[in-house]
Write a structure and sequence with these properties.
The structure is a homodimer.
Chain A: H1 6-34, H2 44-47, H3 49-67, H4 79-111, H5 119-142, H6 149-185, H7 196-219, H8 229-235, E1 246-249, E2 264-267
Subunit structure (chains A, B): Homodimer.
Keywords (chains A, B): Cell membrane, Electron transport, Heme, Iron, Membrane, Metal-binding, Oxidoreductase, Translocase, Transmembrane, Transmembrane helix, Transport
EC number (chains A, B): 7.2.1.3
Amino acid sequence: MAMRNYKQFLFLLVAAVSVGLISIVFVLQWVLYFKEGLAWDGGLAEFNWHPVLIVTGFIFIQGIAIVVYRLPWTWKCSKLMMKFIHAGLNILAFVFAAVSLVAVFDFHNGADIPNMYSLHSWVGLACVLLYSLQIIMGLCVYLLPITPGALRGAFMPIHVYSGLFIFSTVIATALMGITEKLIFGLKNPKYKDSPPEAVLVNVLGLLITAFGGLILWISTRPSWKRPSEQLLSRAGAGSGSPKGSVILSVSPTTDRDNPGANSNTSKRN
Amino acid sequence: MAMRNYKQFLFLLVAAVSVGLISIVFVLQWVLYFKEGLAWDGGLAEFNWHPVLIVTGFIFIQGIAIVVYRLPWTWKCSKLMMKFIHAGLNILAFVFAAVSLVAVFDFHNGADIPNMYSLHSWVGLACVLLYSLQIIMGLCVYLLPITPGALRGAFMPIHVYSGLFIFSTVIATALMGITEKLIFGLKNPKYKDSPPEAVLVNVLGLLITAFGGLILWISTRPSWKRPSEQLLSRAGAGSGSPKGSVILSVSPTTDRDNPGANSNTSKRN
């Protein structure tokens, strides 16, 4: 089964993954080259796990988890397997976020810096709590076999919206974190003198914003949704060739888990 | 013509407007009670116009501009008039943002603080430039009478996405701005000592995040879209009573300006 505007999808996906991976390189460059490196010693090198784990897990892995249903080469996999992958990636991202919080609290307690005073910490903790709630609700509604299909359908708009809202707010929180750390961490020269570290980390902020923008675009195009299960089985699960295969357009659906999915078909040309 | 889940819509709209207005009260409380007040003197009181104009214009007015087509009591107004209101509110928000930038540059130049070194300034300037581009493109595509209908339809997903992306990024930028200003502005007690000003402004950050979340929810519910013009004229422009009138459900549309709008109807009960 082929996707509409497949080349455009592929281009944007490659762009998103590239920008995400470059962000990880930038955050590693920051802590390994400009800062104290990485260690679990209660000091600044332990703090440095915080940005590394947030960019790698809470931003990059969460972003991939959001778009994983949309990869057309996964459409031959069962819906249940894709749910496990989606849930697994989100749980992995949550573990990264949780460990990154431990690193900050450890560092603050060792350096006698108060916890939870800044807007960054308030919004960030809210994100982690909402994310854990999102994962628990997702598991109960979409992986517990006893949950009625009507509830799954009714909850889907909330699940999708919450996921994208939390993801966006995580990125906003990271931008606040970058701002804090560059102000507190740069003393001579200061942030306002624009030393190379400041420029590198500002660019990191632009990169994660661009990553967020790409993931949000990919995940909100109706024509790139995973088709309904009925349609996939009708079209033949093994058909991967774009030529002469069925393409998709937007319409209401009957797939109980995926109320916005595409369900009508038209022959290409 | 009545809207689906009209009470829920009304509740969320009232919540959004209330949270937005409370944000404006909070930012005024901040600059008038805790800071130097408002003046156009090249000093800190001039800087204070920056957060006031951003929260009032670039956040609140832009948010209202985004949802203005969705107010069901405007569905009896012509599409052209609604376009003028949407464009007018966005241009007003742009003027607020532009004046707020002048206030910051004036203050920086007077106090010998460099311009454009922080991530806040980079992302913020990008928002203002993208917003001006968004307004120019919107005027050319949707208000120039010579623009072909096919182009209007094809550009709509980009126009909607860019609008919501810029709006979200403005809020992220405001959160960075709050972080900067609380770190630089609070000296004794410091930000980390959580004085009342810090708590007030952190809460302001939560309020504008909630405002953003409400506007994004309202503006992305397919069933709350302004119906297509054909449907509105068929249903009779004067029918404002919910009882026995036509209600809307999601489906593809033929309205050239509004490719995702609702166009099929069903009798209520």
